[in-house]
Write a structure and sequence with these properties.
α4 crosses α6. This protein has a seven-stranded mixed sheet. A two-stranded antiparallel ribbon has the order 5-6. α9 links the parallel β7 and β8. The chain has a single domain, classed as Rossmann fold (3-Layer(aba) Sandwich), CATH 3.40.50. By secondary structure, the chain is α/β, with parallel strands linked by helices. 39% of the residues lie in helices and 18% in strands. It contains nine helices and nine strands. The N terminus is likely disordered. The protein is globular and about 50 Å long. It holds the Pfam family Pribosyltran. GO terms for molecular function: glycosyltransferase activity. This is Phosphoribosyltransferase. Belongs to the ComF/GntX family. Keywords: Glycosyltransferase, Transferase.
């Protein structure tokens, strides 16, 4: 219900740009261009040091300035209509994943139930669905499968070092029963809003492989410049 009220409020109340604060527009043209990198497309990113089992990761934009503000507005403040431009940025990263062998299946990294309840929505799932819709508009037969779940409690990753994040996530995810057949039928692209150390994506890839799926790569909306080997220019 929180998400419904937020969407209704956005229809009747004045809003400012989530990226730069420009009045009377939820996302201005300049901030929208920052999300899609002005046509330059997604870039390959590699956390250093990267965890074992991390698939190739592509990011739509650097996690900084306007992009960071837009992601946080969607995730923490419930600006749900931002899912579409964020999904477009994620779709750009998905297109760069090399896998072949059929239409991609987007598998979002799961959020903890308490986080979803507190926010009133699941931001990664919402962005993944927007990305799949963007891909379908471009002719790709993409779909989203929400088959990953946490099988044990995990600590909040914020503030943890890379080794601590890895230890926090090892063995924390599993594929829901009966989903292995669906995962084996098409290349899987793991999706998330952000990558930092890569620990969560590596654990997600392990869980998918254990269920018989084939992970072609991972795609995220954004990646920070710090602690990431990345070339945007």
């Amino acid at each position: 219900m929180q998400g419904v009220w937020r969407e209704l409020a956005g229809l009747v109340l004045p809003v400012d740009c989530a990226g730069c604060g420009r009045p009377r527009t939820e996302l201005c043209a300049q901030c929208r261009r920052a999300l899609v990198r002005e046509g330059r497309g997604a870039r390959r990113v590699t956390p250093r040091p990267g965890p074992e089992g991390l698939p190739p990761v592509w990011a739509g934009a650097p996690y900084a300035d306007e992009v960071r503000a837009v992601l946080l507005a969607h995730k923490e403040r419930g600006a749900l209509r931002l899912a579409r431009p964020l999904g477009a940025a994620l779709a750009g990263a998905v297109r760069r994943v090399r896998g072949g062998g059929g239409a991609p299946v987007l598998v979002p990294v799961p959020s903890a139930r308490r986080a979803v309840a507190g926010r009133g929505h699941d931001p990664v799932r919402r962005i993944a669905r927007a990305a799949a819709a963007d891909l379908r508009r471009g002719g790709a037969r993409a779909r989203v499968l929400t088959v990953l779940r946490q099988c044990r409690p995990v600590a909040d990753q914020a503030g943890l070092s890379a080794p601590q994040r890895l230890a926090n996530m090892v063995g924390a995810l599993e594929v829901r029963g009966g989903a292995g057949r669906l995962l084996a039928a098409a290349p899987v692209v793991l999706v998330d809003d952000l990558v930092t150390t890569g620990a969560t994506l590596a654990e997600a890839a392990r869980a998918i492989a254990a269920a018989g799926g084939r992970v072609a790569g991972a795609a995220v909306v954004a990646a920070p410049r710090s602690a990431i080997e990345i070339k945007w220019n």
